Amino acid sequence: MFRFVMTCIALIAVVSLNADEKKIDAKKLEGKWVFVKGMKNGNEASDEMKKAEFEIEKDVMTLNNGGQSFKFKFTIDDKQTPAAIDLEITDSPFGAGMKAKGIISLEGDDFKLCYAPEGDRPTKFDGKDAFLFELKRKK
After folding, report:
1. Which of 19, 42, 86, 105 holds its CA 20 to 30 A away from the CA of 121?
2. CB–CB of 123/103 below 8 Å?
3. The whole model's pTM is what?
């Protein structure tokens, strides 16, 4: 019985440690990111979008693409799986104020962002009914 209890405690500890590793600290997102691949409502990203670069500082994400700049203020809720992100455009060629709900994933230097410009938060990283960006940290 003692061995069974100790095995259960060890298993719980391992699961807890792995759960903590999946939490996303906004500080870990800081830096520059380049586009790897993506989708927009079920369609592959355009050639223009493939030139996009992201820069993240604290709670602000800037998307530079084709001479246009879009700034988003964001908050992360890493208690959800996958982690949730709420975005609000604070500056763009088209104005400010638009809000979007999304999900994010960070594994090493690979960052995924999937958000719906309108409607419900996506539940998976497929880009069928949302915008999906797969990014790599710029070295």
Report:
1. 19
2. yes
3. 0.80
Q: What is the token pair recorded at 60?
A: 């602000």
DSSP secondary structure code for residue 22 in this structure: H
Q: Which two tokens mark 109?
A: 């230097």
Give the Cβ contact number of residue 33 at 10 Å: 23
CB 115 within 8 A of CB 122: yes
What 3-state class would DSSP assign to 63? Answer: strand
pLDDT digits (tens, 9 = 90+) for 98-131: 999 999 999 999 999 999 988 899 999 999 899 9
d(CA 66, CA 20): 38
Torsion (CA) 102, 137, 41, 100 in degrees, nearest 10? 30
The token duo for 54 is: 């992201």
Structure confidence by residue, pLDDT tens digits, 38-65: 999 999 988 888 888 999 999 999 999 8
Residue 15, SS3?
Answer: helix
